Fold this sequence. Notes:
Layout: E1 22-34, E2 38-45, E3 48-55, H1 61-65, E4 72-81, E5 94-105, H2 122-127, H3 129-132, H4 136-158, E6 162-163, E7 181-183, E8 191-193, H5 199-207, E9 212-220, E10 232-241, H6 245-264, E11 273-275, H7 276-283, E12 297-298, H8 300-303, E13 314-322, H9 328-340, E14 345-352, E15 355-358, E16 375-383, H10 389-402, E17 413-417, E18 422-424, E19 430-432, E20 459-464, E21 467-474, H11 479-488, H12 493-507, E22 514-520, H13 521-529, H14 559-570
Parallel strand pairs: 3-5, 6-9, 11-17
Antiparallel strand pairs: 1-2, 1-4, 2-3, 4-5, 7-8, 9-10, 10-22, 12-13, 13-16, 14-15, 14-16, 17-20, 18-19, 20-21, 21-22
Helix pairs in contact: 4-6, 4-13, 7-10, 9-10, 11-12
Amino acid sequence: MESTAYRTHGCGELRPQHVGQRIKVVGWVRRVRDLGHFVFVDLRDRSGILQLYAPVQSPCYAELKALGREWVIQAEGHLRLRESPNPALPTGQVELKVEKLVVLNRSQVPPFLIEDETDGQEELRLRYRYLDLRRPIMQRRLELRAEVLHVVRSYLRSRGFLEIETPMLIRSTPEGARDFVVPSRLRPGTFYALPQSPQLLKQLLMIAGYDRYFQIARCFRDEDYRGDRQAEFTQIDCELSFVTQEEIFAIFAGLVREVYAQVLGIEIGEIPRLSYAEVMQRYGSDKPDLRYSHAWEEVTDWAQGQGVPFWAGRKVFWLWVPQGKASRKQIDRWQTIAKEQGALSLATVQKERDSISSSLSKFFSLETLSLEGEGLGLWVGLDKDKPAYAALGAVRNAVLRDLNLPPEKPWAFLWVKDFPLFEEDAEGRLQAAHHPFVLPHPEDIDKIEEAPLAVRAQAYDLVINGYEILSGSLRCHTPELQMRIFRALGFSEEAAQAKFGFLLEALSYGAPPHGGCAFGLDRWVMLLSGGQSLRDVMAFPKTTSGADLMLQAPAPLDPAQKAEVLRWISADESSAPSTFVE
């Protein structure tokens, strides 16, 4: 019986074993090539590309010849072997001799090439995102994203995790970034917030007894956009009860291994660990790119005996770049970067063949450095009392970038642990380094009131190729300890109850020890797919100015709708219902 379906196969599925079969395919016309005696058409669908063929004597010859780019067609005929195979295509050994052609829809000439290497600028491609998403490279990226989520769900479900959804309309709570707020029509003068993360909700699920939770969660933060950040993003959000930090490392390192094995066919082995203090002193960053082995070494004791005046009383760090060679312009740039990030000095030494040179040669003999091979060395001096370790990271990144050094390996993974519980903002006020619900190290709890900046948190990040991919912590599970942290952050009893009263109350009803983490899905898929921006792996992203060029959003409201919304916003809050009991 003849098939009544639109197609019998995807364009990219056909192989020599299908030769001789009657085939029906559908897709978009990629290219038409008229060779006089023959016409060839490349037909594309999500599965791949298939060559269609008709000789000049065929009734379909003129129809194929008249097709335009991106027309949607259905072609039917018998599959045959190609006389000139194309090894670059999975379907390159076969072609469809067209015996029946149906034009399902015509297309205007697209504003850019629907190819991996396109001529369209990003702004134009975002304006016509539905066309940009037809490009094979974009389809491969979104397919990879779907595959990652399939592996994640399978792994977590097999280990007893329940997938539970949490609401999008919640209460605004201070979590570090600005909230997106939504005025309430039913309760004028009050507002919902869109969740920055499901943090408090997943903690409440632990209190409710759902001891292993996960969610593919949409999150919203009203902050500036950049290549690896969007205001609307997706997390793989997880929480567990009765769990230690070691168990969390084991479970989620296992998830990462599973994703790399299933999606990329890569075995990644054990993931090393460093404390926050260690990574800051070695790399100047809590998310170092360890594809490069270059690390800073503290040489303060050696430096104090060299007679360099601007090293006196300072911490001094040394970085050696084998085979590195820098221009005066590059060194000047690194000095500027170092000082902008709080360093007090930067000096360099260059070794080439049998010569060695540095502006420090007037202070000590450079030969005593015993440098092996050619290369470039850098010294950075930091304030001894308040060392600006971020300067080490900024200089290291600039050196790696400016010298165009190739990565030493394709993937590098690192657990960073023991973050500070508190930090100071620009005005010297205490704030939560991660969020205010993190459990301190047991031996540091007594320092919360007296030396808060010395308190270490049971918090951790997973860093892949210099990107933070996972962040998490163990959580406070007693109301007394949680209240001590709120007080350290400057919350009065009344303010803490106003903002977090529901949490403090819930913690008083037998909250279990718990902890968890969240993966940044978009950022992780960007790395896995080789993309350069989150926009490469999100179906409908925003520009760096927060605009959706396709939907033309944000946009003005209709005057009547705007007036109604303003009435809800400007209503006297005292007139809003004081109770939420219906």
